[in-house]
Every structure is written in C-alpha cells, then in structure tokens.
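Hi all, long-time lurker, first post. I run a small reading group and we've been trying to get comfortable going from sequence to structure in the token notation. Rather than ask abstract questions, I figured I'd post a concrete chain and ask someone more experienced to write out its structure so we can walk through it together at our next meeting. Sequence below, copied exactly:
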Amino acid sequence: MFARLNIFTKITLLFVVLLVLVLFLYTYSNRESVRVIEQEIQNNTMNQLSTFAESVESNIYQLSLYGMSMGQDSSIQEYQRPDYKDIPYERVKVGSAILEKMNLYNAASQWHSTITLYFPRLQKVISTDYYAYIPYSEDEFSQPLSKSWTYTHDQFEWYTTDPTTASIKPDEARLITKISFPVRHLTAMLDQNKLNNKGDPFMFHPELGLISNSSGSNTLNAVQSKLHEIELQDKGGFTANLNQTEYYVSYIQSDSLGWYYVDYVPMQQILKPITSSRNLFFASIAVLIAMSIVVLYVLFRSVQLPLLQLVKGTNRLSTGDFSVRLHDSSRNEFSLLFARFNIMAQRIQELIENVYEEQLRRREATLKQLQSQINPHFLYNCLFYIKNMARMKNEKAVVAMALNLGEYYRYITRSEKDHATIEEELTMVKNYLEIQALRLERMHFTIDVPDEILGKTVPRLTLQPIVENAIIHGIEPRSEDGHIIIRADYKDDRYRITVEDSGRGMEDKQLDELRNNLLKPLDENMGCGTWNVHQRLYFLYGEGAGLEYEHSTRGGVKVHIKWQDNNNE
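-- Answer (accepted) --
Happy to help. Here is the structure in token form:
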C-alpha cells in the first residue's frame, strides 16, 4: 500500500516517522556524544579529507586515463592517414568526428576540461577550446615533457604522447595529448566540501602557495605558516593553537598533483554547540513541528505541482510531441530543470533534422560515386574507335574523334559542378552523332527539343550512353540506313527526353531483362552506362525518375529519360 502513494505523501509520512525517531534517539545519543566527540573529531576530519581527496583523485584519474587512451582511438589513427593529404575534405570530416567525441567526453565528465591534440607530423592542432586559436608551434615541444601534472596560469596541465616513449622527444611523436583543467573545479569541490562539512578545506604546496575555497577565512594564513614550519609526510595531522583557538589540522598529499589536501576544524567550537543543543532541543521540537507544516505546504507548491507538470511534459515528449515546452514563473531548481527540459526537447528536434540532412548527404555521395564511373566507360569506347579508324587509315574519322574527345574532357573539367544544362548535353551528343555519321555514312539523326527545356539541368553524361547504345546495338548491326531521333516534352515540372532509333530492335524478353537490370546491383556482366544513368537520376530526383524502355514504331528501341524538376526551382 505504501508503494502506491505518491512522492509527496511518502515524504510526509517519512518526515513524521523521522521526527519520532529523532525524539527517541536524541535523548540517548546526547549522553554518549560528549564523551566520544573529542576522539571522533580527528578521525572524522581525516575521513572527510580522505573522501574529498579520493573524489578529486578520481576525477583527475579519469582525465589521465582518457588522455592515455586517445592515441588508440580509431578516428585519430584515421586522421593521420598519409593518403588524406590529397583529400583535405576527408581529414576535416574525421577531425570533426574527433572533436565531437572529445565534446561528448566533456559532456559526460564531471569536470569540463580542455583537450588539445597536437599532431607533430601533420603540424595540426585539434582543441575543444572554441574561444582560442591554437596554432602548431615546433618550438613548443623542443624539450622533454613532464610525466606529471604541472600547475601554471591558474590551471593544471598534463601531457601524454603516442607512443609513450616519445615524451623524451615529443617532436617525434605521432600524437601529443594535452589535458588541462582550471583551478575553479578544485575551488568548487572545496566549496562543496565546506558546505557539507564543518571544516575549511584548502590545497597547499610548499613552493606554489595555496588554493582556497571561495570563502576562505583569515585563519588560512596562520595554518599555512604552521604548515611551512613542520616537516610534512604523505598523510598526517596535528593540533595547533591559532588566533587563541585550538584547531585540529589534517593533511593528505595528492599522488597526482603533488599538492596537499588540508582541512582544519576548531575543536572547542564543535563541542560548544553539543552542550547548548541539549538545552534548546526540546524547545526546538515544538518550533520544528510548526515549521514542518509550513515546509510541507511549500514543498507541495514548489515540488509536487512542478513535478506533476514535468511528468505530463515527459509523457507528451515520449509520444513524439517534441514541440512541448514547460513554463514556470517561480525561480527555483525546477525552473532550471524546466529550462533544461526545454533545451533537451529542442535538441532532440535538431538531432532529428540532422539525421535527415545526413541522409541527404549520403544520397549525394552515392550520386557522385555513380557519376564517376561514366567517364572511363566513354573514354574506353572513344580510344577503341580511334584505334580501329587508325587501322582503317580513316584519318578524317580519327581527327574528328580526337577533336571530340578533347572537347569532351574540356566539357568535363571546365566546371566543378556535377550537372549540365540540356543544351550542353545536346551539344556533346550532336558532336558524337556527327562522328558516328562520318564513320557509318548511312546513319542520320534528328534533334527536336523545345527552347524552354534547354536551360534545365541534369547529371552530366545523361544522354551520351543512351545514344551510344542506340548506335552500337541498334543501327550498326544493320546494313540499311538508320535514323536516331531525340525529342523532348514537359508538363507540370515533369520532363521527358526520348531517344528513338530505327535499328534492329529487341524482343520482349530482352526489354524485360533491360528493365530488371536497372534495379539490380551493378556486376561485371552488366553494362554500366545506362545503369549509371538510371541510378543517378533516381538518387537525384527520387521516385519516378530514371529510364524506361519500349518498342519503337520504327523497328528499334525507344528510351525515355524522365525526371521531375526538384532541383531547378
């Protein structure tokens, strides 16, 4: 039954039970506490300091461990690949991935550190410090690196190298990792330790001075002077009279930093509240009960109601409603939580949008890979044609093909764009057809394309493989005159270019096989020309774009090149 109660009701019941237990236990414990308190002060102070030291050492160890493991990361090893010298885009992309991993580590770490990666062989630097430009300097690593944490400019720094033996000669290392964190992290932990305990912790170094908490008292100077006077061990404590007050001072040396964690507590001040609290306890209980009612009311208004609002918002978020936002006019912890909730919902929306953008980039990369296969395909055919015409002593055809080949590569390399206008494509195809007409003499062609379409863009070398197949497989095997017709039409941003020949044609089975091959992965038994054209159109313009085959009334094959104008708006 208790498990079915809401959090507020459980807290109320636990508060009542706790109050009853406090009344019972205090009467007994008060008699025993005075007797043992002096012995426990020293142990308690040392234990608290040990806990604090372990917490700091744990954070430092995590930073050190991450620094040593950086060299084994696959992204960093890939970043140093020598073949990326000619592919700067790939190296920038891998560098962005490395920076994203380092930022993710910072987001997951309790301490926000600055991670800087130096690549001596590449003379490049990657750092999580967005507000500083860090150039690579060869003189910076001319001396051996320290194997421990160093303190400089209000921050601690630590270096590691890959390989680890390169710390003596860091300029020969493949990777130098520098991890640094500001002193404010230690100050924040000192503040937290002081808030949770009754001491006044600080850090001390015989040569570098001290690092105190934000509210360090004047007694720190007296404690520091006392620490200079004694010979410090790895761990210990002593009693000292400072400013007419008796203090117990405990210290522990840091294995990582070389500094000492120091804490001191006034023994007399600790004992005095215990004696006076006995007299005030029962009077305080009455006040506590009255205040408990007020606290529970405030707790209901400040915690229970915002918590219910947060649960409702979370439920909406789980259903996919990422537009949900929480609003609270009060200024408390829940207002900060609501703000973080709103940021989280917004970032989820952004991540979803980024996924869509990444899918578009992947499609674009696939498109470029497919287009790159067309260029050698056409080049091989041209070179074989030149060879055959040279054997036949057909100098005119060789010259025409050589000029066309030169014009072709000028057409390919004069622009970085992957697209060409219909007019540019038709100019290239016209040159190609004139060469083939010279070679065959019995071949004729007609081009009928409206002027409104000439300015539209398609992937480069879209028409040439279709026309080439019409000549090689349709016109050339026949001894009669052949005719190729290229025409185009459009309607409602849907465009179609038709290539029709009067060649020997194909059977239904052959046409079906051609249609099926367009949808299969490319293999060595398939021609890559028309397959590439179809795949590039499909990846660029989406569903419905590509090639269609059908019989021609002229006896040959009719090929339709179809697409919707999505990229020319």
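A couple of things your group might point at:
Residues 38-293 form one domain.
The first strand starts at residue 114 and ends at 119.
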